[in-house]
Write a structure and sequence with these properties.
Shape: globular
Number of helices: 4
Structural class: mainly alpha
Order of helices and strands: HHHH
Helix content: 55-70%
Mean pLDDT: 84
Radius of gyration: 11 Å
Length: 78
């Protein structure tokens, strides 16, 4: 894993926690996670987890599969 990939992973984990635990808008979550471009954040979140931030927020029981990084229905650990 490269350093930029590691930083992105940390930012996305923070975004997941904010989506679950706060009532911030998706744009505010993106900004809090270090992304100034809302559309880039959405695209990257969906690429990393296989689900949009909006859909993830509606069903936070689902998260990425540890082995593939894709959406699989595992519970999220905070």
């Amino acid at each position: 894993m490269t350093f930029p990939e590691y930083v992105s992973k940390l930012r996305m984990e923070k975004a997941k926690k904010l989506l679950i635990a706060s009532s911030l808008s998706i744009a505010e979550v993106a900004e809090q996670a270090g992304y100034s471009d809302y559309f880039y954040f959405n695209k990257l979140f969906k690429k990393m987890f296989g689900i949009s931030p909006t859909k993830f927020r509606k069903d936070p029981i689902r998260a990425e599969c540890p082995s593939t990084g894709k959406f699989s229905g595992h519970k999220v650990r905070l």
